[in-house]
Amino acid sequence: MQLSEKLNILAESAKYDVSCSSSGSRRKNTPGGIGNAAAAGICHSWSDDGRCISLLKILMTNDCLYDCAYCVNRRSNDIPRASFTPRELADLTIAFYLRNYIEGLFLSAAIRHSPDKTMEDMVEMLRLLREEHRFNGYIHVKAIPGADPLLIAQAGRLADRMSVNIELPSERSLHLLAPQKKRENILLPMGQICQGILQRREEKRRYRQASDFVPAGQSTQLMIGASPETDRQILRLSQGLYRKFQMKRVYYSAYMAVNTSSLLPVPGGPPPMLREHRLYQADWLLRFYHFDAEELLQDEAPQLDLLLDPKCMWALRNPEIFPIEINRADYQALLRIPGIGPTSARRIISSRRYGPLTFDSLKRTGAVLKRARYFITCQGKYAGGRDFDPRRIHGLLTAEETFAQQGYQGIQLSLEDLLHQETPATTEKKSPSVILSRFNDLPSVTSAILSPLPVTDSPPPASGPALKSPLMLPVKGGLLSHEGFSL
Ligand code: SF4
């Protein structure tokens, strides 16, 4: 088989893995133009210092022993199969690098012959790149579950980042949909990589010359929507992974139906992209805003609200905390206010040294006032309308989000559409009446979006009940609900 043919097959097979960041662009080359962002094979990731780097994203082989129900490369699928030898792939990577097509490599593999043989080939390929070609670019490599720990350790010394994909958020789903995979075969290499990173960090503190081990950390991927786990289960699992294995990132991948199985959602529906987006937002709250998964979602309300971001959702379920006086709140309290992030919270605290903040000066800290105004007072003044009523604020914020979501999907929706038309507001299949029914008083909601709310003199008392149950849309899944992974 020609090398170019292998490249096409194995780059195409790698595209469902999102555990390296990808641009997701659909732009194709045009006659007379150069470049093609839609072609499989090149993805983009971000280095620690914020640079965007292009990676060759490829499988070493798609010839798989296993038969995971959700995977395009599963043994029972009749698809073209190909495998690179370590030398072929090392030479190809260098050729791409020298032509400036890529700055690094994202390498994964299906399980060919055995986990050990697959990992051995991957390690050999990395060795050729690092030692023969003296390649110092970024390499992200998958650890193959079940491979010998010695091979994992060798890969860790050669790669910048490693990942072991969990894919399914509970042991039961793993058992049903990927029966040849074992929980311990996934968690053991994660633990080994974590130990290696911590140990090497300690060695580096003592001897600056100590060699690297997975210096860019480890990541994993969870599939969303292939199985019925709730957002609460998924977030609790992510939190456990961050805490126990020092994950750099947990990636969420909206399930795309490529196979049919009675255990999977029926093919044909759109992938749950909005749910994936909400999980990324909630994940951000865990990592940078000191939220706990248990605070965000409880047993009685286990799903994120698809129509509102998780921070607003949390604030509206805890109205007794709001509104918060911006001139007195400490850093942790500021972080809890929707529209205020770590940078604006730090700026607010340092600005207060020179005098109390007003709504105008608050804008200069980078706070998003159109959101924050419902949850704060500034020198005792409130700009969120008549009072702090969670239901009213939920309606206003949801209407704002609805407009924003049209941009997210590339759909233009006018105010007129929102008022009168049958237009879906998210990628989840639903009618607009689901959205519109939430606005009891739609004309006043839309006019409130369009005009600034008046500033009132005294902080209003919270009125109306907290939003204890989420206003949410159904989540698809092929199985009955069950408990998550135990770490
Ligand atoms: S092990 Fe499972 S998920 Fe991985 S390539 Fe094979 S069939 Fe696909």
Automatic annotation (TrEMBL):
Alphabetically ordered keywords of this record: Iron, Iron-sulfur, Metal-binding, S-adenosyl-L-methionine
This protein's record includes keyword Metal-binding: yes
GO MF annotation, one: catalytic activity
Signal peptide span: none
UniProt cross-references to InterPro entries, sorted A to Z: Aldolase_TIM, DNA_rSAM_put, Endo/Exo/Phosphatase_dom_1, rSAM, rSAM_sf, RuvA_2-like
Protein's name according to its UniProt entry: DNA modification/repair radical SAM protein
